[in-house]
User: What shape does this take?
Amino acid sequence: MGCSTSKPVTQQQQGGLQSLGREAESLDLKNRRVKLVLLGDSGVGKSCIVLRFVKGQFDPNNKVTVGASFLSQTLKLGESTIKFEIWDTAGQERYASLAPLYYRGASAAIVAYDITAPESFQKAQYWVKELQKHGSPNIVIALVGNKADLADKRALQREEAETYAESNGMFYIETSAKTADNIQELFQSIASKLPGGSSGSAGKQTPQPR
Amino acid sequence: MAPPPLPNESKRENGGSSGPNTVHPTAAAAQAAAGAASSAAMAGVMLALKALKTTAESNGGVEQRPRRRQGELQNRGKNAVGEPEGGPAAGVKRHRKKRNGAGQGVRLDVPMGGLEGPMVSLQGGPPGRFQSSSKALAGLPKGGSLEKPKRGGGAQGSDSGASRREGLGLGSIDRGEGGAQRFDTQRPERTDEESGQAGSPAERAAAPSSAILQAPPVAAKASSPEIHKELGDANVQSQRGGQDADGVQIEDPPGVGEGYLGSSGSAVEGLSERSTSDSSLAEARGGCWTPGKKHTDEDDSSESWRKRKRHFFILSNAGKPIYSRYGDEHKLAGFSATLQAIMSYVENSKDTIHSIRAGAHKIVFMARGPIYLVAISATGEPESSLLRKLDLLYGQLISILTDSIERTFRRNQKFDVHSLLGGTEPVFASLMHVFSWDYAVLLRAFTCLPLPYAARQAAGVALQEIASPGLVFGLLLAPAGKIISLVAPRRTPPHPDDVLLLCNFVGASESFRTSESFVPLCLYRYNPSAFLYAYVGYLEPEVCLVLLTSQQDGFFHLKECRAHIEQSLRITGVFREVAAAVTRGGLRVEEVPSASAAAQRRLAAGTETGEGIGSLPSSRSSITASNHTLRQKQTASGDASTSGRWGPGRSRDEGLSAGLGGPAGIWHFLYRHTAVDQYLASEYSPPLETRAAQKRVFQTYQRLLASMQGDGAKSGPHRMQYRRDSEFVMLAWSTSDFDFYAVFDPLADKDAAIAVCNRVCTSIRQIEGDLFQTGPVPLAW
Assistant: This one.
């Protein structure tokens, strides 16, 4: 994977990686900034999730993400705000070797798959392993089954994903960027689970993904 | 030296004629059969493969050239076409035979002049064994349709070849030298289309023949004194155009561009749609072109796939498909293997295959390390132009993967690169579009958005202010790949090809429009081995900022730079200027300054003249307003009443084009500023408002440029050409400062045309600062 990209990456890996995450968390608990990365196979709808969250839009035309896109969105959580600085990475294989650039130092990650595409779930598991190995120790990982609106084409049962998420200390949620279903909830859950966040209470306010 | 280039040219370009040109009788047979298959593209390749196996006997179909690493292009040019066609005396130039292992692969280059003899043997056009196989493959060769090129009865008999495109319902115009012309008037599309534009159909029909009959001995020496004035003694080495029939065979009839469904569909669209010329450029650049790969359901067994007129393939030297313009790469594995077999068959004998002709199809090969690139074209475009496109295609591949892909291949031959290219379909599809429409491909230059000098300076300064060590290039892009400003370190000016591929990559990737992005990208002329990292963000819907850094972690720094740049561009009003410039478009031929002294004299009789020249245009108030700065500058730099003024002021009497186009019937021009590697293309104006017409112009330029650059004439580069065919009068003029190419109405008067070119060039130079990015400031770092 990413064979071609690997060379230059290693050439230029001069300690710069951390600085992408330099603004990951500010100490101000009221107005925190959180670095969040989206990972997953191509075509599962990562960009759609972000655009729905950030801009409230959904574009059915499939626009392939190139490299990585950067967006930010502030979420109100009780009295404090959390500014998500989101790296929406491209799912293509050739960019895989660049992923560390984006997940290094991230305090939250969304690993997305497409509930109608089993192979994307395999890829999600790959990313989870990758994050466990190389990501921040306390990273909050959300396993997201996207395209929940295509329930009739569902190829992966919820239980399977839930079990997997539980056994890996993640939380699981099914979303639909198309119908905006559970998108806000996804980010609120992440916010509430972040260390130092308005922990318990906020987490319980969040509608449980069911 | 300098034999008239034309017949050569036509010979070269006449895809169909190569067969008959081949001398060897058996080769002729093979070629004849291959020609028969011309209507089915891929059949040609299949044939070629078979031909390869049999070339030992037939000595024909495959061109092989001595392997040379350096200077391949020149060699190609000479080897392929370098024969003097000056007269019948020009003999057969036989390339040295290379006896390879099997004794195969002899190449015969047949000059025009050598046609007569072989023709006889061809006359019979004995359908050899290929005939049947071609039928089997193609299904519709129309009995080979081997029209005998000996027609025309010209004394010199150097007719450029058989037109055997009947299978496709295309006609072609062949013209020999010295009056041995011939018309195939099976060009329904063209007639339909153009009759409406240029007077009555009858008049139109008369036009081409009169054009030919006129076919004046054109020699730049004998041409307008103005040019001499202009150039002084600047060694105007015009070729002796006098003997030229000034005809180029029009290979690609209107309405049938490359692309069988895709493009001809758009051509039809173009015919029915009388778009305003304002929108025509946008249209040409992507208006009715939809991004993304099309026809992915096809493969080499599809009739439609075979009929497509221009294919491009990338494959590995193991025969694995990497990219195909049409069809699904996976389904084309067999076809790729065929191409690979052809190439490695020749390589095994320590040689390199360059091209194959199969009827109307030209198959051009290029090997770049373990990557093979193949173009198959029935559009009749010169080989040099196909090679150029293959090179760019390779560059685009490298821009996405870097050349480390080659190392990967060396380690693992079976590596599947195709999977690494996921999501890049729009980039390649857009590149294919660029190949057919973007003059940057032909001119090896980039183009700037015409912008008041001050605005461009301000943009340059804004980019310059963010200079920092890691930053390699900064680029402000307007739609259609036009540059607003470009900054680069002093010592490494950007290569036009890199700019072209970068613009294509950025323009084709829709996701950049939605958010800021950070993308690894390789500039293959800058450094093919390493990625740069590009910050891409749209400051305005029409202004895209691209900053390239060598630092992988440079995103946040560049994000700050963006804010800075955005602010200073807003303060200096650059966005406003850009918006106005985008609306205004580029220079228009109908606004060519029409008040040179000579023109005035000529126009004196005209009644509308005085009004036009003296007054500022009123009918186009918006354009006038936005052109204000341009005009000011013109006024400052020259006598406003005599020159330098771009405005709709010309008289209808001046041209012979029934009111279409610019003065003296100028329809379009290209101007390439040599020192800065930038070009300027005029907007398409009537009668070039249809896509079909624009495509013909593009292809005409393509041939014209190839012939200027010595591709098609032994004499090498030319300084000046004036030629005429049934559709256009073409003028090319190359000086040390600039290259100028123009197409005119086919009935244009030569002296008037040359005078207009002089005026255009002079006035462009007067407002150079607005049209090009010049001056030291933006390019310093």
